[in-house]
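Hi C.,

You asked whether I'd gotten around to modeling the 62-residue construct. I have! Everything is below, sequence then structure, no commentary in between.
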Amino acid sequence: MYIDPMTKMNISLLAIGLMFVCNLLMIFARKMTNTLFRFLVKTCAFLLLLAVFVMILIVIFV
């Protein structure tokens, strides 16, 4: 499967943006007091990081 370089660049920029969002979510979760909501925000950030990992693998190996 071939992905043109412009699409790879867009995927990598999206991955960088999502990593920034994950960082902000983690900072926000550390300042919370409600443990259930804190857990949900951290879980969402972790799932976003998994999506970023898949995007990075696509950019590198495809």
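If it helps when you're writing up: The chain has a mean pLDDT of 96.

Thanks,
B.
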